[in-house]
# Entry
Amino acid sequence: MAARSPVPTAGDWLGSKGPGYPLVLSSRARLARNLEGLPFPGASDEEELERARGMVLESVSRGVAEERDWEILFAEELRRDELGIMAEEHLTGPSFCEEPAAKAMALGPGKAAGVLVNDEDHVRIRVMMPGAQFMKAWSEADTIDNRLEREVRYSFDHQLGYLTACPSNVGTGLRLSAMMHLPALVVTGDIGKTIAALGQAGMYVRGLYGEGSGVAGNLFQVSNRRTLGRSEEEIVTEMDTVVAQVAGNEKTARKVLTRGPGLDLADRVYRALGILERARKLGFNECLELLSMVRLGVELEVLTLRDFNLLEVGAAVAPYHLGEALGVEAAGEDVDRERAVEVRRWLDL
Amino acid sequence: MAARSPVPTAGDWLGSKGPGYPLVLSSRARLARNLEGLPFPGASDEEELERARGMVLESVSRGVAEERDWEILFAEELRRDELGIMAEEHLTGPSFCEEPAAKAMALGPGKAAGVLVNDEDHVRIRVMMPGAQFMKAWSEADTIDNRLEREVRYSFDHQLGYLTACPSNVGTGLRLSAMMHLPALVVTGDIGKTIAALGQAGMYVRGLYGEGSGVAGNLFQVSNRRTLGRSEEEIVTEMDTVVAQVAGNEKTARKVLTRGPGLDLADRVYRALGILERARKLGFNECLELLSMVRLGVELEVLTLRDFNLLEVGAAVAPYHLGEALGVEAAGEDVDRERAVEVRRWLDL
# Structure
């Protein structure tokens, strides 16, 4: 197991293309688990948190990492901008960044797999994959889960399943998510119908950084809500079905856009390109919106451009990434100016 | 005197630079006169209008045009788009275009001088000059006026001066106007104060096409309101003073912009450039706004660009000009698309 590296570079999965690309940019499987005999992290004192962290990291070290190169990051040892960078790369949620005390992360090679310790639950296993690969992501998370379970005893109820801090995760503790790029549904205004239908189908629809984050760049995180009373395989099947439906809606909206007055679409796409080429400063959300429109243009063959992955460029121009590159506070006009330069570098403009 | 040419090309003054350029793009002197013994055009019947037109055109022909190449345009013989083109080149106002019956225009070489017949008054002498040249514009109008007065008798009152259809023109009948480009006053928000001060000083502030037209491209027409009880020389002096003051305000605002956070200005200017370079369609007003920002950028040395005159390009991308080039109705998406192409041609983008 490697020593903590200063700032991790982005995971391989972030810039890769998988099944369903470019409508489905990435998949995530997340399993929530807690240690038997210890209160949930939110109810634990300092000593209990330290004990939990020690137990989980030791079991990762023995059960998971022995054959592979994992690295361990103690949250309180990371600088604020290092924590921010991890969140911008979708490795952690905001709580890991904002209250780092007694938290840790074990990160697998390529950052595809990770184990978060003492976040909302003692153990959160997280596996990322490019494109729509829910079965594969879940299988890998399941493998890690099984190896950990050889080392520690989880809090488990034979009626309910795995017990978790938040009742919404009780049961399988499995949440599958897809990061989807849905610009045509936004442009045509049909996104509202799709989101309403997803809500009725028992799915969450969230923004770029998951729970509590806003939508930016027409990127939507779609995930299952129900984790209780159904098998993991059923959840995988549900995700496959729902994500295919949403992708179908987006494809229909794209046909509407290309069949409609073509000038409207081309004008929007080219104006976005013009601003990306020429702006002297760009806010993060605006930059993502422009990138989203330009990608839509590329995908609908309205313009040609150097190939780029929206999620990868999105991380590279996020505030902490740029702040890190500049060596300044990750805010303000310097970052906005650097973003305008950086995005042109990525797009070869 | 030449026969009516189909569509006149733009006047030389429109694309030229005069004193006070680029803040003062053009000057106009206008004298309002009416024929003695005939009712004002608005109160005339068809036969009286025809008589007035015949008398005025004959006097132009004998008194003004004998040595020079003037052309006579009968408004009702012009197509709608030809009338529109003349209005877009600031040769006529909207009433000439909308109610052409019995109206006419005698147009001097280079379109700098003209005599409008049967518009609001029987005779409106109009002289255009590039930059701020109020004395010169008035002198030339005065010369034409004197020559016409050798041929016809004007309606004149020894107490009031020249009598006109609208009381606001009684007296000298002289209205001087400056077309000013004031983008920095708009960007800083100080334009409101300047307009209020102009109102208090007895000046009109109008839009791109004078009375009743909206402001577009940060272009403002400043003109004297009072024509009665003062000499023409006093009106010229007033215009010189007022226009210099407004230009001073604009210069101050430009200093504020360049001393302030430079990135804000550069960002606005370059975004305008990016949209001009890339948009697939442009509305007329939006196009003027973008041109105005790009000109401001050129004048403040934020960017370099092929030199262009805002008023000249503004006329070239106006609806009737583009419609004429396309041979279609001067409206709709075709014109907006052509405008995006045409503006890039003018700017060498």
